[in-house]
Design a protein that fits this description.
Order of helices and strands: EHEHEHEHEHEHHHHH
Number of strands: 6
CATH class of the largest domain: Alpha Beta
Distance between the termini: 33 Å
Helix content: 40-55%
Strand content: 5-15%
CATH architecture of the largest domain: 3-Layer(aba) Sandwich
Low-confidence stretches: 1-11, 14-19
CATH topology of the largest domain: Rossmann fold
Length: 227
Amino acid sequence: MTSAVRRGTQAAPGQDEQANASISVMVAEGHAVVRTALVAVLQSAAGIEVVGAPEGSDATVQTARGNKPDVIIYDPLPPIKATELGASVGLIHAASPDSALMIISESDDPGPAQAALRAGAIGYMLKSDEPEDFLRAVMRAARGVPWVSPRVAIAMTTISDGTAGLTDRELEVVRLVALGYTNKEIAELIHLSVRTVESHRAAILKKLGARTRSEIVRYALDHEMIE
């Protein structure tokens, strides 16, 4: 199936940050009902164009190579092991290196999410996520900002590492910052006030000798905190 290209009419979350630039999105989803729903949500948002909706891994790679979309939404059907998912992500990424690859799945197991991110995916969404979060993830992906579904993100923060003298809570904040969450979103996820999260970030920057969010992300990547 290949979806007709159509521009949406409603503003997507975070659209103002895109300065009305059009975002091309490919939806690689094996379930027809889910694929139709995802395309409909994307087409409802202004500034987004659906440029393909292939079925199957071979068609996904071919369409990605031919269309070079800004964002690729990929559901690795049927459920596969983390190593197999990593290999699939690698093939799609090789076909269109400049595309931001976002995995969408029913599984909240952090293992596949870690494998996908390690292989080059920019994020991992759940089919149970709200449409608003789905659009927000797409908009972030187009800007090169990671997004991981909150349930999966929390599971990925359970590994403790005392490097740089960071506390367990600070390490949790580091991982969530690196996964693209704002202070407000982090506060909601781990049940803290925004001011407390800001205090944790200030302490993290001081301990790491860093000044920017990008340096926190680099630290997390270098120490394999968000594999």
